[in-house]
Amino acid sequence: MVSHRVQLPNELTDQVILHSDPTELANCALVCRSWVSTAQRNLLSRITIHERNYTEIVQHLTSGAPYTIAAYVKRLNVLLWGDLRTMSNRRLADKTPLLHLLLPHISNFINVQELAFDGCRAFNTLCWDDAWTDLLAAAFPSVKKLTVHYLNFEDLPDLVDLVCSFPQLTHLTAEDLDIVAASHEYSNEPQEPYGGSKTPPHLLESLNYRSGGLDTFASGVGPFLRWLAAGPQNFTTLHLDLDAEAGDVNAGVELLVAAGANLRSLSLMFSDQWHMWEGLELSGNTNLRSLVFRNVTDLGDDLISILESLHSPLEHLILGHVEDMDKEMRNNLVNILTRPSLSSLKTVDFFVSSSDSRAEALAGEISVEYPEFFKTGIVSIACKRHHEW
């Protein structure tokens, strides 16, 4: 009997490995030598450094071995003080920050394109050390995506300096930040603007921003959004979750207006009992293609006037918590969506937050009440809970 050894093309095996989950990738690395590099490159492309794996990673980086895992890492996520959310001993938060310990070895990560830092500030009051900024900028001059989660900054220039340290930055995610020096008893009061000379990175085109929540009260970040609004406007994508208690609703609206005709995708959510977004309109965003209002109750009856202000070839519309709309508002909404000015719409997604059965019931109601609208085929109704956004 003659045995034939079949060897799959490298391009095919690479695609198989690329679409494998982490457990399968670890097994792929054990199949044969030709699979090792591709499997490890994908398995190690994203790593998170925390208090449970830091020691082993540093030992590996300082072992003197010609091969290190760091060369495969494209997205580096550092929990600055360890994962304080799961630590049973909170006193560990007082130890030297993991990032400070990692900095002497940071140059090993030569291919990083995305950086993420998590300060877990709900359990920690320490601020970002501005001495880290220059060291990171020198190590990662080509970073395109920066994520800062749950961090305290002593003052606004510290945050601005960090963002400006990466000239190739195209995407910024900023969630639950606090500028300590700008805190107020009532943080919706006017705050000091940025007084420096730095402007946002000229390639920055995407922002994902979320205010601090009620359980981790934050303030002082409104001036940061105003700094972005005053800079060169290349924003094509804005995802804004704005809280009046954090003093950033007006600033977020200013950024939205400043983006003007460049803006193509907008996701918006307000928590604002004072209606500080009043007067919001989208007439200047003339190239808007995708629009998301995660909670229609944020805007109340003004939702209709905002949609009426659209002068763009909108293709995709998503509305959340639609089960909270009353009958009159639903009528007005359908009337708006069937106007010739919105004939460019390709999809309209209605999301309810309560249950799948409520979504099914709402779909039945709309199909009966507005048969022509429902039969266009662009309408979709489903359940999407808050944590799924």
Low-confidence stretches: 16-20
Q: How many DSSP H or I helices?
A: 13
Shape: elongated
According to DSSP, the number of beta strands is: 14
The name of the CATH topology of the domain at 127-257 is Leucine-rich repeat, LRR (right-handed beta-alpha superhelix)
Any guess at the CATH architecture of the domain at 127-257? Alpha-Beta Horseshoe
CATH class of the domain at 127-257: Alpha Beta
InterPro entries: F-box-like_dom_sf (IPR036047), F-box_dom (IPR001810), LRR_dom_sf (IPR032675)
Pfam families: F-box-like (PF12937)
Domain F-box: 2-57
Protein name: F-box domain-containing protein
Give an account of the 3D structure.
Helices cover 29% and strands 17% of the residues. By secondary structure, it is an alpha/beta fold. It has a domain at 127-257: Leucine-rich repeat, LRR (right-handed beta-alpha superhelix) (Alpha-Beta Horseshoe). Strands 1-2-3-4-6-8-9-10-11-12-13-14 form a 12-stranded parallel beta sheet, with helices on one face. A two-stranded parallel ribbon has the order 5-7. Strand 8 (206-210), helix 8 and strand 9 form a beta-alpha-beta unit. Pfam families: F-box-like. Residues 2-57 form the F-box domain. It comes from Mycena metata.
Q: Could you outline the blueprint of secondary structure elements for this entry?
A:
Blueprint: H1 10-18, H2 22-28, H3 33-43, E1 46-49, H4 54-61, E2 75-79, H5 98-102, E3 114-118, H6 131-139, E4 145-149, E5 152-153, H7 156-164, E6 171-175, E7 178-179, E8 206-210, H8 222-230, E9 237-243, H9 249-259, E10 265-271, E11 290-293, H10 302-308, E12 316-320, H11 327-337, E13 347-352, H12 356-369, H13 371-374, E14 379-383
Parallel strand pairs: 1-2, 2-3, 3-4, 4-6, 5-7, 6-8, 8-9, 9-10, 10-11, 11-12, 12-13, 13-14
Helix pairs in contact: 1-3, 2-3, 8-9, 10-11
